[in-house]
């Protein structure tokens, strides 16, 4: 398949599967829809408020690659950053625009391939790509673009999925697919593979996050097993023993 064809397949998948919209009860594009998805996002990713640094970039230029409907980008904007968001999905960018206008916040939002950013070298103080590299046809190219548009000394926060994680093991044991397994591209990484992917940065620290919390994704017996048995049992294990097995591998990288 040509590179263009694989990018088009990724684009049309994400146009049709706006991230997390499967749990939405509210009509897409309404103010309540964005509230519902933001609440779900920060419940599920309870580490983000601690790790993302939403308030650290006041007055700075922040780029989010693969911004989806802008849930995280809104937080950077609320923290005073001058924000730009790009996504391959036209539908996601259109919804992100609505999200920002409900919030009364400004953002530059564009449909753009994160593997071919149309920004000059050294344009941004911080680049954020959360849950994006694992879905793009050529992650090496995206990392190289992210590094190119960062100012020297600028930072990137990048998240991919950890192959050696509790969620991947649970999915194999229960035969319940991980989300977006039907996306045209979905890669899992070992910490070593992820380290290699970001090795061009001057310094990188890699760690894992995302441990089990109650989920609205499951129904019936599965919901009972997951929410009432698995989550409390897992969380009895002292974190020190499981800390390498988080579902999200995060790189904090400095150019
Ligand atoms: C799992 S969603 C994550 C959305 C958001 N970052 C979040 O954490 O909620 C993946 C997003 O990455 C976008 N994406 C995938 N490949 C991309 C690319 N090459 N350039 C820009 N966006 C891309 C998809 O369109 C989709 O919106």
What does the secondary structure layout of this molecule look like, with pairings?
Blueprint (H helix, E strand, L loop, with lengths): L2 H14 L14 H14 L3 H4 L9 E5 L5 H8 L3 E6 L2 H14 L4 E4 L12 E7 L8 H11 E13 L3 H9 L13 E2 L1 H7 L5 E7 L10 H15 L4 H4 L5 E7 L1
Parallel strand pairs: 1-2, 1-4, 2-3, 4-5, 5-6
Antiparallel strand pairs: 5-8, 7-8
Bound molecules: S-adenosylmethionine (SAM).
What would you report as the Rg, rounded to the nearest angstrom? 18 Å
Q: What small molecules accompany the polymer chains? A: S-adenosylmethionine
CATH architecture: 3-Layer(aba) Sandwich
Question: Which percent bin holds the helix content?
Answer: 25-40%
Structural class determined from secondary elements: alpha/beta
Number of helices: 10
Number of strands: 8
The CATH homologous superfamily is called Vaccinia Virus protein VP39
Q: Class in CATH?
A: Alpha Beta
Distance between the ends: 33 Å
**What share of the residues does DSSP label as strand, in percent?**
15-25%
Biggest β-sheet description: 8 strands, mixed
Nearest-integer average pLDDT: 94
Q: What global shape is seen? A: globular
Q: In terms of per-residue confidence, which ranges show pLDDT below 50 for 5 or more consecutive residues?
A: none
Keywords:
255 residues, alpha/beta, 39% helix, Rossmann fold, binds S-adenosylmethionine, eight-stranded mixed β-sheet
């Amino acid at each position: 398949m040509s590179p263009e064809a694989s990018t088009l397949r990724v684009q049309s998948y994400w146009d049709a599967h706006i991230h997390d919209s499967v749990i939405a009860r509210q009509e897409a594009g309404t103010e309540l829809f964005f509230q519902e998805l933001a609440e779900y996002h920060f419940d599920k990713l309870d580490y983000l408020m601690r790790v993302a640094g939403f308030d650290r970039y006041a007055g700075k230029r922040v780029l989010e690659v693969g911004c989806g409907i802008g849930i995280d980008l809104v937080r950077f904007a609320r923290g005073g950053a001058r924000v730009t968001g790009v996504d391959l999905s036209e539908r996601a960018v259109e919804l992100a625009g609505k999200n920002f206008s409900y919030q009364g916040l400004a953002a530059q939002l564009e449909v753009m391939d994160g593997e071919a950013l149309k920004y000059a070298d050294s344009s941004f103080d911080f680049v954020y790509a959360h849950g994006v590299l694992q879905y793009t046809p050529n992650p090496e190219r995206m990392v190289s673009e992210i590094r190119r548009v960062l100012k020297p000394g600028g930072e990137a926060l990048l998240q991919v999925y950890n192959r050696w994680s509790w969620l991947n093991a649970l999915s194999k044991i229960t035969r319940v697919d991980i989300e977006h397994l039907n996306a045209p591209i979905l890669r899992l990484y070992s910490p070593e593979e992820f380290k290699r992917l970001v090795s061009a940065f001057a310094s990188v620290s890699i760690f894992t996050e995302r441990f089990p919390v109650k989920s609205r994704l499951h129904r019936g017996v599965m919901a009972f097993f997951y929410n009432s048995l698995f989550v409390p049992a897992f969380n009895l294990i002292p974190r020190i023993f499981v800390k390498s097995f988080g579902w999200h591998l995060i790189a904090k990288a400095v150019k």
